[in-house]
Design a protein that fits this description.
about 350 residues, 4-stranded parallel sheet, DNA-binding, homodimer, 12 strands, 6-stranded parallel sheet
Chain lengths: ~350, ~350
DNA sequence: TTGTATGCGTTATCAG
DNA sequence: CTGATAACGCATACAA
């Protein structure tokens, strides 16, 4: 490996001059510059990234931790983060946090020890307090994806979950449904609460009363969605539609509904949330809320490098989700021959 | 940030001693060792990774390039690569290659300039010659996933695609089908050719004759699968089953079949290849060939660090795919009232 | 068992 | 516009 010194000798200049032409950080006379460039590609010179990092105290590496790499939409997220990073001549070091708080904390430490220039976090289990503590413990800039922590609001790239919840239920209402149940994610998570709140707002906005008996809490997983749906049915209240906190739970709910002999959307309409790829292939095509994860990834990467360079960032912090209409919702059939679901 | 020098002063020893206890590379007297450790966590000492990398000429970073981060099964792959890397105290720097050769080459260069300890490549478009040239151009160890290049065979983690193709068709044969068509991926790719070869072997193994007129080449994409299916039908030969080169093309084929009024698997059986997550949700559930991408990721990571440490690696190079039976194949109905498909 | 001194390849500060 | 040289923080050969 040729070093900067080799180049300087070959070009008959000092290492400082070589450094200057490499980084174009100062003016260099055209002819010496040319000599240096010739020497560089004669030797196939590549600057040593370790030495550079040591001298400048920055590595051009962004650290990223995500809850679960093999999950359904992290691909989109990371793909876009990486793309943006590359365009800004940065690299991304990836770590999967696993599911629990300890693993997420470990992942963060792992990256911090590595002295990344900035941290992009997509974490579920770390608490707001953890995040807050982390932010004041380290100098490293931190960007939070899909999360809103008030004290760190300038570092958050998040989505309006309340609006998303509302959009789904508004659509159900527009189709004539009024007996609308809700399957939420774990309510200790703020996004679950926000989506539920959107559900309630939509209901009340339509002059209906919100009732605890129509909502059940689950775990964002498919079997959990089935269980929740079963509990809902067993309560015996009439239901013509169910708004689910994410797509996976919607799959579970639909599966159980089919098992019990209901048709979806014929007897009961179901909506999801997230619009993961599978939802377009699911039968029936799932009507759901699309979250622009890709765009959020791009913004997160931009914010991260801006922060790393101590620039004032110009980024979009909040994104709006969109309703994706497919086949799992039908206008309410008011002709009267509707199956009375609580009689099963 | 406390440096090794700060620690040495506080503990009243030399920097060399501190280095020795940090890396446990030599014996240190228990009491001095204790003093050093106390000093370390009194100061919250963290070794500087850049300096360490510069001095040792290794970064403990594995570089990885994948064709498309947001694709369906890269999540599983990367998740496992990252997990294994972390367990071996390595990090992974990820780059997505995009779809064409130039981007893949760029991605590799990007990582090479970074001086990663090893490279894990999951690339489609780079040619065998590119890979071969790359291997002799750089000192950096290279591991190839899902690819077999004879000259680099000890660095390949691949799957037996011929066997996979054979398993799918053997199953179709066992269900009584004999008029079996095949939709392949681009035949310039060796895995497409291998799967096709498996198809042919199975046919001939059953005493049937292979015919060009029953195979059509497509592009591994869903619309391509539809087009290919249409071409196949338009040729007018009788067909009761179709073996597709991947799941996406199977989706496309099934969609077209449904559009033309056929039932799957009632009229025509379809198999896929890859077993991406969606296939379990697809309607009908897709019978397909499962490729153990996760396990391959683990092996690739192990191989990469072994190579980086100049150890003789003990890894499994070839993996066998498995048949996953779901609902898109039915035993051939020989009762005679079968729809004559070429009459449409 | 421990300490000293040098090198790793750059950047950046100061002179010239 | 260019050159000399001191950091940067750690590992390691060589001494003690």
């Amino acid at each position: 490996m040729a070093t900067i010194r080799d180049v300087s000798k070959k070009a008959g200049v000092s290492v400082a001059t070589v450094s200057r032409v490499v980084n174009s950080t100062q003016w260099v006379a055209p002819e010496t510059r040319a000599r240096v460039i010739d020497a560089m590609d004669a030797l196939g010179y590549q600057p040593n990234s370790y030495a550079k990092a040591l001298a400048t105290n920055r590595s051009d590496i962004l650290g990223m931790v995500v809850g679960d790499l093999s999950g359904p939409f992290f691909g989109d997220l990371m793909g876009r983060v990486e793309l943006e990073a590359r365009q800004q001549h940065r690299h991304v070091l990836i770590t999967s946090g696993g599911l629990n708080r300890e693993e997420e904390l470990d992942a963060v430490d792992f990256l911090l020890r590595r002295q990344v220039d900035a941290l992009i976090l997509h974490v579920d289990s770390m608490t707001d307090a953890d995040l807050h503590a982390l932010a004041r413990r380290t100098e490293t800039p931190i960007v939070l994806i899909n999360r809103f922590v008030p004290e760190l609001k300038d570092q958050c790239i998040h989505v309006n979950n309340e609006l998303g919840g509302r959009k789904a239920v508004d659509y159900l209402l527009a189709q004539g449904h009024t007996d609308i149940a809700c399957i939420t994610g774990p309510l200790y998570k703020s996004d679950s609460r926000a989506r539920l709140h959107g559900y309630r707002q939509a209901l009340e906005g339509a002059g209906l009363t919100f009732s605890e008996s129509m909502v059940v809490e689950a775990d964002y997983m498919e079997p959990g969605g089935s269980d929740a749906m079963a509990r809902l049915l067993d309560r015996g209240y009439p239901i013509t539609a169910v708004a689910c906190g994410n797509d996976l739970m919607a799959y579970g709910a639909i599966r159980l509904l089919k098992d019990r002999g209901f048709s979806v959307p014929g007897d009961i309409a179901v909506t999801g949330y997230d619009d993961i790829v599978m939802s377009g292939y699911f039968e029936p095509g799932l009507t759901t809320i699309h979250v622009p994860v890709g765009d959020m990834g791009t913004q997160a990467a931009q914010l991260a490098v801006a922060l790393a360079e101590k620039r004032v960032p110009e980024v979009q912090h909040q994104f709006n989700p969109d309703l994706i209409i497919r086949d799992s919702v039908q206008p309410l059939d008011t002709s009267g021959h509707k199956k009375k679901i609580h009689s099963l």
